[in-house]
Amino acid sequence: MTSIRTRFAPSPTGFMHVGGVRTALFAWLLAQQSKKINGEGTFILRIEDTDKVREVEGSIQQIENSLKWLGISWDEGVDQGGPDAPYKQSERLAIYKEWAQRLIDAGRAYADPYTPAELEAFREQAKAEKRPFLYRNHRPENPPTWDGTQPLRFKSDPKPYQWTDAVMGNLSTGEDAIDDFILIKSDGYPTYNFCHIVDDAIMGVTHVLRSQEFISSTPKFLNLYEALEVERPTLATLPFVMAIDGKKKLGKRDGAKDILEYAKEGYLPEAMANFLATLGWNDGTEQEVFTVQELIDAFTLSRVQKSPARFDEQRLLWLNGQHIRALSLDDLYARVEDFWPVVAKNTDEAHKKQVLALVQDRLKTLADLPILTEYFFTEPSPDWEMVSTNKQLKKLNQEEIVTLLAATKAVIADIPESDFVAENIQDTLNQLLETTGQKPGILFSLIRLAVSWAPFSPALHDTLATLGKDTTLRRLTESIESL
Predict the structure, then answer these.
(1) Does 364 participate in catalysis according to the annotation?
(2) Mean pLDDT of all residues in the chain?
(3) Of residues 252, 264, 394, 439, which has the active-site annotation?
(4) Number of domains in the chain
């Protein structure tokens, strides 16, 4: 494999969502893999900010923050520099004019003299004649000299094309897909169709990855590559990311939210990278959980599927839990600083780590931490509705509840303070099951609620050991008295 140079070139028109970030990740993985194999590989971050009408303030910073959160670093580009700076297209206008002049000199570009009304009349004529509108059918015989105030159009060379896409395979099209398109608009800014090809050529991009929506424009790009006499890069078209029902492309209404929202919601960047990489790609095995390094080692364009991938947030949640469990306690502790319940803020590190170790296996997101741990740091208030709405516990009457909790209190009190550890507590609870004749699902659930009043908690014997004997007895007493 030769040294690979990839790029991600988003428009700063809003937040980054799943589809765009997946494209960046795939391009980054290719470059990282090239570094490992060849010692060279480059990932470029370029900003395509030529549509000033749609540009949203703050979007560039949001793009950078999104990539950095995911662990995607760029070797060249905005906020980094490089041999082909600048990397914002709005700062490269002189370069595009120079390349446009080459096309004019070669007879492959001309000034568009028509008004919007005249163009609309051409379209209406084609519609009335039931034929597709092609601008090349209306090329002016003697176009004016281009002075930058008119749009500059590419003079296409219509012909059929056959090409190989690294994902979609062998593709072809007829000459009707080729038309004269605008290279530079009347405001002086180039169109995407022109400037991305110029920039890719200058920056030596070897692999261009982009969404399926651009596949219909590829014949135009091929025509322009030839006119500019530049080498065509490897083209890879990525399938759409679909809503969970599989019926439409994922949109904001279907969960395509700002990728940084997932960070605020307690998702790990490793889990998100794992999820995005396996949206439309697999390594041919049954493996589902990948580290970033494993993704770099295994990723190939040949294993990217042609059909759309479905966005399943439940799978993302599952993957997040898997990655949380794989973290060392120290690493996890460093990441949950902003997720502790307020009452735990001033608690010593040793106790918080003890609690964190207890709940690590139950965390699906870091944001679950408060609901799983708050009762370790503050006294909970009894909420008997949690008992009355529990499928099994609602069968118990008040007298039975008091009897079971009193029996629990008695056996807990008999455990010496020095022996109040998880293993001994579990033995005591098992003996209590025998003496009361209750099922674990009833007895243990009742005790768990009585000491935590939380909807979720770790294993009961671990919870009691972490709370300590005095706290456990006090909370059992308070729960009994509250009845």
Answers:
(1) no
(2) 95
(3) 252
(4) 1
